[in-house]
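subagent[fold] <- orchestrator: predict structure for attached chain, return tokens only, no commentary.
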Amino acid sequence: MNYSDDSFATMLLTMALTPNRAEYARPLSTQEYRRISQLVQASSVGRLGGLLQMDISGLMQLLRLPEEEAYRVFTLLNRGVQLSYALEGFLRRGIEAVSLFDHEYPERLKRRMGNLAPPILFLSGDRALLEMPMIGVFGISGVKTTQEVRSSVEALVRGAKERGYAILTGGELGVSRVAAGFAREMDVPRIDALGGGMDEHIGQEENALRIAAGRALAVSLEHPESLFTVSHAILRNKFSFAMAEAAFVFNTDLKRGETDAIKNRLCDWIYAYAGWPQNQTLISRGATGIGEISDRVFAELSVRWHDSRTEQVSMFDFLQEK
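subagent[fold] -> orchestrator:
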């Protein structure tokens, strides 16, 4: 993949080249990256790629940075050789890095998350799957899946197949794994948004086969060798809510960013299974409570999503005509 200077600069500034971030200069966080981007846009250079040949004093003068911060930015921008080796290593394992400046980066994510959109995504599989409408299935691992929940997830996957949706999961044990199993049985496209452990995930035989067949895509916001952590899962969930046309939360510990997704309207249609006690908190904060999902219930719900999407398209068409 050929990267523009702006894309390469974004990766230099924000990408961890090691799974534990044990690097000489700490990569910029999303907030830090946005601040630097705004300073660059307001400068005479105007674009991130213009920073690639600058020295520390030039960065200090152009962006009005203190010496310590300019040194950090300079150090990150001069990791070009190391970054190139890392990207080649990812490609050999079937993983591609995509930045905000690449056309493969999902527009829906930019639109939904705005300045909080992650600068870089790691992808393994058919990138075109990111353009499909998605139904998100959310839950935490270590929770026994009841028959009612299994039946509901099965109805979701069956409805997705009939109406042309992909299934978006978190990839871990629990309802995500149940949804993945039904998606495999019914041959429904699947996107696994991971909170770590990407290398291990795509190396598992079933996942590898689905990816090779173009029926699954793995996405990570973290270095592919990073381990699963709750903080990684929170960021992953923000991505997932923003990408999903409708999201179904079957169980939660209220520590994975669900309330934040409701507050910031990352997804228009968030449903919380009323049979899980802690979901009552989500319902009280704006999620729609729901019981067992049948084919009939799915059909009724999906009509609302379709009508809402049609209204949005009509509105944009009207504005373009003006």
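orchestrator: received. Logging for downstream: The first strand starts at residue 96 and ends at 99. Residues 249 and 272 are 5 Å apart (CA to CA).
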